[in-house]
Write a structure and sequence with these properties.
two-stranded parallel sheet, alpha/beta, 7 strands, five-stranded mixed sheet
Length: 159
């Protein structure tokens, strides 16, 4: 029995081809584009809102090379403006009423007090506030500065 050329190819002598696309396995890659978009939006939100989380009295702190301290839950702060105005937390207070108010707010005997003074405030005002705090029984008085100031060692001297 002889087969013609047409019969040999149409007889299906082997594999048949499927019509359409071949079946593929499941795609096992994760699409990270939406994740990156969400992370960038969160980053922008935190960058914008971070400066708003500082204490409410606007001051221009002097710069030093000292490192930052660990945060506490609700620190007691005394702020001194360039014009000599004194604030306990965010409320203005007279110099004479500062120590009694802080004693009423203190939760423990050794609770630290943070003094934030404007760089243009007089040394006399800052020294008087710190002395009043010391004589009122506060033993842990911290002076808050901004980082990035002049180095304390080996640098060129100021005239």
């Amino acid at each position: 029995m002889a087969l013609s050329a047409h019969d040999a190819f149409s007889a299906g002598g082997g594999s048949r081809r499927r019509r359409g696309r071949a079946r593929r396995g499941a795609l096992s890659e994760i699409n990270v584009t939406p994740l990156v978009d969400v992370m960038l939006v969160l980053l922008i939100i935190f960058m914008v809102s971070a400066p708003l989380l500082t204490v409410g009295v606007p001051l221009e702190l002097p710069k030093t090379e000292a490192g930052a301290l660990e945060d506490q839950s609700e620190p007691l702060t005394v702020s001194i403006r360039a014009n000599g105005g004194i604030f306990v937390q965010e409320d203005p207070v007279a110099f004479e009423a500062m120590a009694p108010r802080l004693q009423a707010m203190a939760t423990g005997e050794s609770q630290p007090i943070y003094v934030r003074a404007d760089g243009q405030a007089t040394y006399e005002t800052v020294a008087q506030v710190m002395a009043a705090l010391s004589t009122s029984g506060f033993t842990s008085i911290n002076l808050i500065t901004d980082t990035g100031g002049p180095s304390s060692g080996g640098g060129p001297e100021r005239p």
